[in-house]
Each structure stands twice: as structure tokens, then as C-alpha cells.
Amino acid sequence: MDPLVAAIDQGTSSTRFLVFNTKTAEIVCQHQVEINQSFPKEGWVEEDPQEIIQSVYECIERTCEKLAQLNVDVSSIKAVGVTNQRETTVVWDKETGVPLYSAIVWLDLRTQSTVENLINKAPGKDKNHLKHKTGLPISTYFSAVKLRWLLDNVDEVRQAVLSGRAMFGTVDSWIIWCLTGGSSGGVHCTDVTNASRTMLFNIHTMDWDSELCSYFDVPMEILPTIRSSSEIYGYLKSSSMAGVPISGCLGDQSAALVGQMCFEEGQAKNTYGTGCFMLKNTGTTPVISDHGLLTTVAYKLGRDVPACYALEGSVAIAGAVVRWLRDNLGIIKSSAEIETLAATAGTSYGCYFVPAFSGLYAPYWEPSARGIICGLTQFTNKSHLAFAALEAVCFQTREILDAMNQDSRVPLAQLQVDGGMTSNRLLMQLQADILGVTVVRPTMSETTALGAAMAAGAAEGVNVWNLRSSHLPKVTCEMYEPQINTDESEFRFARWKKAVQRSMKWETTEAH
Q1: Distance between CA atoms of 218 and 147, rounded to whole angstroms?
Q2: Angstrom distance (rounded) from CA 351 to CA 210
Q3: What residues does 131 pair with on adjacent strands?
Q4: Rounded to an integer, what is the distance from CA 86 to the centroid of its chain?
Q5: Cα–Cα distance between 81 and 101 in angstroms, integer?
Q6: Helix residue ranges per DSSP H, 204-336
Q7: What average pLDDT is seen over the chain?
Q8: In this predicted model, what pLDDT tens digit does every residue of 330-384 receive, in sequence order?
Q9: What is the DSSP string of 391-447?
Q10: pTM here?
């Protein structure tokens, strides 16, 4: 039996545990559990950290049962990697192991006034005041702002900090700490890719930055230790896999970049999940964007290996718009139905949907924007709306690609794509049409989990996965070529940009 490597993929809407063959990169077995999101107030998005960790245990146990049915010995699994929704913020008590508050999810907007206060104290009230160190604008998106809100608003968190019991982490840290023993000796660590999304991390020194911590007034002793994305952090304590090392850790978008094998400077991938995230590898030099993109750590595959950086365009709402059409409007019963519904119209008939449910992220960074649907006529029906929702995902991606091309001055010839929505063929064709470039989709779309498994298998002391380009498995792909004329797609894109302008400055922080 070839050695196997497993990955925990803890995303915004579900948790998965997948087992990969190290020679072929094929999935041997997997299990998935959906995660509940709660919206206690408008703009608030929370998840229960206990539910998150329970879902991880459940996925591990179910997958082990499935392996047994396949007559595969669990001891063939040589390592586990972790990949996670980034920026989502957890604070817990290190003595009891109990979370002190719900996990505040990355797209939560409660910190809008916190952000305004932080920007107001910046020289010239510049939201990019910390960008030279962090690569990020001051925004509701990043962890430091969520942590600041918790310290300001939750007594339990404040008390735990004062008594030296508080631990802060993004979801990767929470999972690794729990799996390696929790309050009995759990490892409190994070990797450089997750740390680079907190706004407390200096992307040049590759460490927590005391100046950034004092800007946000965050005590450094609650922060996890920073490690590379590929090394042994600790060993699983309980579960059917006790004793297996956890040796890979990457924020989900970095993991997808690795899983798509974008190891060359200039290669890019776009992941269509709850949100939409395009990353372009810029090599060992961080490129600071002039066009609203983020500079982030792509990966650091080993303790003594230099880090690689990426330019990133983040869109808050992609798959979430489909979930919204399903759960809030009820116009589809399952997410998969949107393709059929949109295809019956074949066009949005002049209807444009800007799903700015959590403000606009890249390239605008406009938290005051809200979702709008415009261009409606008496003729518009639900299939036009479904089509407009899919088109919105493609237009948002086009805005990011344009910004990337401007920043790097090397236009992208093709886009590698992955994530749940890429199984929607209509969406993929639309994307090629709207971008005017070839869209390449690997037939195995679980590239995020694959990236975490590759990092874990390649770690020193595990060494069952070779990341040298001559050893990388050949992946089969589907190609989508642009099929409409450029004038048509440019016209539609210009109308979309007009709709975006109308969604801006909708919300103010004054009392309603």
C-alpha cells in the first residue's frame, strides 16, 4: 500500500476529512459535515468553536470507519495536514479548554465602528497606514479587529486575559491545540499563512510585531507561536489516529495554491467557496498592490526554506449567494439546482446582482456597500435572477484579475480554478467568457485539502511526499475557452461596474 496522508479541511460552511494517496494525489476516502452559521444581529456571523472541533472529530472517525470497510489500514496514514477558513477568530481558556465566546467569522461586520476608530487614529486617516508591514488595509475582514472587539465587549475575554488564561487563535490554532491534547499540553501554534491574515504579523520579519500589537492594543502573550507551513507541530492525542503527526498547516487559500501546484512565480488560481479568492504567486518578494489587492504569505514549506508571497484578491460572497437564494429566498431547493435554473434563461436579461452582503472587499474595500439587484423589468423572473447571481461571481473575479494584471504588468494567460462551485459548468463557461482567458479546472476539485496533505507529507521527519516539480503527480483538467465576442462581455462588464457604484455608501454607522 502506498503511504497515505490525510487533511482536515475546516471551511466556513463545512468540515471535511480527506485521505490522499501520496503517489497519485487521488482521494482514497473522505467524510464531510456541514457547519451551522448563526446571525445574531444584522451583519454578525458566528460559529460555535465546540461544534467546529466536534465536526473535526466526527469527520476523522467516520473516515476511519470507511477506510476499514475498504480494508485499508489506518496505520497507512503517515501524517495529517490542517487547512482552515482564515481570519475567523477564537479566544479560549487554556485551563478549561472552553471557548470564551463564539467564533467571529471572517465576513462578520460588527467591527465596522472599531475599524473607523482605528482608521481615525492613523495619520491622514489612511486605511492603508499599516500596509507596509502587514500587506493589508485596516478592514473588518482581519483577525486583529475582531480580537479588539472581543477585548472591548466581552467580559469573559477581558477577565481571562487579565488572569493569564486567555489564548487567541485562528481556526487552525484552535484545531491543532485541541487535537494535540488541549488543556493537557496542547500545542498553541499557527503557521505563517494564517498569521499573515491577522494584521499583527510583519510579513517582512515573519514574526508578530510589537508595534502592530500596540496599535491594536493586543497583549502578545495570548498569541500562538508562529511556525512554517510544513513541519511536525505535534501528535494526535485521542481518536482512531492517536500518535499520527500533524505536520502541515496552511490557510485555505494558500493550501489551494499549493494543491494547484502554483509553485512558479506568476501562476494564479481562483477558489470558488463561500467567498472567492484569487492568489497569484509573486515568488520570494512581497509585492505591495496599488490596486486594492492584498499582499499575503503564500506558503513556507519547511523551517529553513524561504517563504513565498502572493497577491490576493478577496471577494466576500460567491457560493454564499447561492446559499442565500436557497435559504433566504427559497427559489432553489439545493445549491446544485442553480445551474439548471440559470440555464433555462441563458441570460440575465439586463438584470445585475451585486451581492455586497458584507460590504465590498477587493478591489474597493468599501464596508458601507450593501447588496443590490438592478435592471429589473416585468419580464424578469427567477431564472434571470439565478443567472445574474452566477454572473456576479464572474464579474467580481474579472475585477480582481484586472487589478492583478495592473499590479504585475504581466497579463494572466489562463486561470486555474477550484472549489465547490467549479462543478457548475455553466459558471465555468461564463467565467471564461467574462475574463476572455482560458479557465482550467482540475477534475479533482479538492485542491485545498490536497495542498494541506502535500505540506504535511513533505514535512521533515515525515518525508512521504516529494514536492519537486519532476515528482508532482500529473493532474487531468477540463478547459473552458471564451466563446462570446469581447464587445458583448465588455458591455456587460461596464453595466456591472455601474451597478457596483450604486451599491456603495449605502450603510452608515449612525444609529438607524
Answers
A1: 8
A2: 49
A3: none
A4: 5
A5: 26
A6: 210-216, 252-259, 319-327
A7: 91
A8: 988 887 888 988 888 888 888 999 988 888 888 888 888 899 999 999 999 999 9
A9: HHHHHHHHHHHHHHHHHHSS--SEEEEESGGGG-HHHHHHHHHHHTSEEEEESS--H
A10: 0.88
